[in-house]
Design a protein that fits this description.
about 200 residues, alpha+beta, three-stranded antiparallel sheet, about 15% strand, elongated
Length: about 200
């Protein structure tokens, strides 16, 4: 790329590559060049994963078969954004991908946290905060709000834990939610997502 296409910025991670082109014509030329180079190395582009993606936004309003792509756990696509003056516009930008969000929820289910009634709530926080904080620090770089469904799921799991932990809450979903919300009010930094995302359970 440096020798043949020095004006085309690109990123690579392992065998995944993104090349940034200014037109479809340039994109097709770069694609043919990469195919030729890989062929000399007895390699080839993946026929399903290799796409030409149109980065649609307020300045690029055309249409194309592919207008989004996934890279390193993020989905890049047109999104509604707000500028510093409060005006909304369409911006081509990243947020956590559906696949990454699904993997996080699956990991939470594997923890079987709601069955850990032998632990106190702050014990659970010490056990899982490093993982929660790592996810937030990585996937929360852009569009933190896209993480909200994942961590609302975690709050629901904490409510299930409370219902198993305390007999007085066992048959009372709303009472358990109120109890957990009260804890979050008193100790808002107990769980990473409570203070890093502001996603605390409600106390009412």
């Amino acid at each position: 790329m440096r020798k043949t296409h020095p004006g085309v910025p690109f990123e690579r991670y392992a065998d995944d590559v993104i090349a940034h082109c200014v037109s479809e014509e340039q994109t097709q030329a770069v694609k043919r060049s990469i195919e030729a180079r890989l062929k000399r190395c007895k390699l080839e582009l993946h026929p399903d994963k290799t796409k030409i993606v149109y980065c649609k936004d307020d300045d690029r309003r055309g249409s194309y078969p592919h207008e989004k792509f996934d890279f390193l756990g993020y989905t890049f696509r047109p999104r509604r954004s707000k500028n510093r003056w409060g005006k909304y516009f369409i911006n081509f930008s990243p947020a956590v991908s559906n696949q990454a969000a699904t993997k996080m929820r699956r990991a939470m289910r594997r923890w079987r946290l709601h069955l850990r009634s032998d632990k106190a709530l702050d014990d659970l926080a010490h056990m899982w905060n490093p993982v929660l904080r790592g996810w937030i620090n990585y996937y929360g770089k852009f569009y933190k709000s896209a993480l909200n469904p994942v961590f609302r799921h975690f709050n629901r799991t904490l409510t299930w834990w409370a219902r198993r932990k305390f007999k007085r809450l066992r048959r009372h979903q709303r009472r358990a939610e109120y109890w957990l919300g009260g804890v979050a009010r008193r100790e808002p930094r107990m769980f990473a997502h409570w203070h890093l995302l502001g996603l605390k359970p409600t106390a009412g």
